[in-house]
Amino acid sequence: MRKITLMLVLFMACLMAMAQAKQTLELKDIVSGRFRPQGIRNVVPMADGEHYTQMNAEGTQITKYAFKTGKPVEVLFDVTKARECNLKHFDSYQFSPDGSKLLIATETTPIYRHSYKAVHYLYPLKRNEAGAMSNNILERLSDGGPQQVPVFSPDGNLVAFVRDNNIFLVKLLYGSSESQVTEDGKQNAIINGIPDWVYEEEFGYNRALEFSADNTMLAFVRFDESEVPSYSFPLFAGEAPRIDALQDYPGEYTYKYPKAGYSNSKVEVRTFDIKSKVTRTIKVPVDGDGYIPRIRFTNDPNKLAILTLNRHQNRFDMYFADPRSTVSKLALRDESPYYINENVLDNIRFYPDNFSYISDKDGYPHLYWYSMNGNLVKKVTSGSFEVKQFLGYNATEDAFYYTSNEESPMREAIYKTDRKGKRIKLSQQVGTNKALFSPTMKYYINTYSNLNTPTLITLNDNTGKVLQTLVTNDELKQTLAGMGIPQKEFFTFKTPDGIELNGWMMKPTAFSSSKKYPVLMYQYSGPGSQEVVDRFGITWETYMASQDYIVVCVDGRGTGGRGSEFQKSTYLNLGVKEAKDQVYAAQHLGSLPYVDKTRIGIWGWSYGGYTTLMSMSEGTPVFKAGVAVAAPTDFRFYDTIYTERFMRTPKENTEGYKATSAFTRADKLEGNLLLVHGMADDNVHFQNVTEYAEHLVQLGKQFDMQIYTNRNHGIYGGNTRQHLYTKLTNFFNSHLNGR
User: Does this model's pTM top 0.85?
Assistant: First the structure.
């Protein structure tokens, strides 16, 4: 009996040990997105302010939900029920402003970061006598080929779009008759209604085409890129996807890319009178080499807002132009001793009598309220914090809604100010909160997470009260509870210069303070960016922490969230202070009793890759190994808008460009280096890594290199990401962990 009892005890102990054992974190799970939190996809608030719509994950249905309850009301579109519908699924959708029609995108083909072509279909949302959705017919928007940036007129009776760099107009009340508005569009020469590559990439939009409020006029930006130098990169047959036409001989892709100091597109704003078919050019006093990053029709059909920047991007002007007389008048000017933050462009909202604007002219980005004649009505927010986004204005309660980092540079919350100017915090959870409001500002969808909490999505009213929880990610929480997931912890330290920097740290799950660990530092470091923020994410860095590394991220000088002086302290000398701060961070980490200071590595992607190179070549040999993925190596190779915003032109800032080049300090490179790049990177060209690699060769500096065929700046497709992160893991294991 005693033997049997002992065996039972041992058996139960084994079962308990097995139950308590944590699953191992696998690299394939990170790459596949197994631990990516659930969200809600393609949510569109409806014009009535009481409902929103959402497409399902399969792309087969669009369902209408009530803001008040979060419950489904009806299915507005279903590919299995629409008449004359041969679609199996669709990719995205939009409503006409009056809510009577849907425009559905299919066969979507990406072009650059924001642009794409798609075959669009119109679907009228007609109802039968009982008020239910009738079985309506799905019709192609155009038979002439895929379209870009289709946009409805305010009354929903017209749709304008771009094809082959020309603008077309479809009149839905006249049998969907199609006419061509412009005729001069030409590849790598003239573009109408959509931005060129550099505008799209650096000003973050894909449409330069607008209807007037009275449906009578079209306004668009015309880009003449004829004098912009071209850049070409090779394309091969490859795999995933395979290009059979290039099986025997490779091809190439050529497009216009203005590098720092070179010519930009010549831009002008034109208007098209839909009835008379007269095209006019607006007289806007923008500098000959200046930018027009946005146009917007206001609620007044005789006021077209034209947003401009000079080439240095330290002066912002907004003009109100009459689309028929072509006369424009300055409505707002903002100037900076450094540069204007590009986020001002999407935080200008027009109301019948006022418009909003975010400026950092007092040292922090804050919300300002102007009359439509350009007079300042009031400064809505103030203090030593940043307003991140203007969410909207409710005229009934005279309230402004916005997100800010008032609590901490690492956190975002949702606020409103009432008619008395009292600031009220709406979001209840501490971490990162994002909001999508109904058009009436009566309800909003709150998307929240923090370091250790996966995405939580709730429906709220405009007092902040939670009406319904839409997404909890409880299943993900349960999965993670059964695994040994390293947790991030915030920390701060002071540099020898006396500057306090923010960071996060992940320790191995079986961390022992008596042991010495290798450190892997990750960073991005670009102007205005933030990586040290209170939000959830399980990434490759999490995996590396599970592999017995201490993983650390530090936001150095030049990053965002801490006001203009901190962010813009790198002006005219990118990379220098950023690299110094990463060296300081490594030295601080090396002083900790549980860190092996002889085994510190650093890595980053894009600007983070550049900072990796600059840090490893700073002159202080603190890094044993580093990886630079898709890194710019000299800003002479990079585009005008981004580079000149922070550096001016090479001619104006010769010494600055020399100091900021990874080539200049390459002779001081210390540590084992891996360079990674995609050959079809349209953003940071392959030229960056090839020229830098050649320079290292001639200096006698050894390094490793991994090239990816036909891959762009994101380096993905097929098995590519798995291969990339396996390469990175093996590299650091070899040089930092002796594996």
Answer: yes
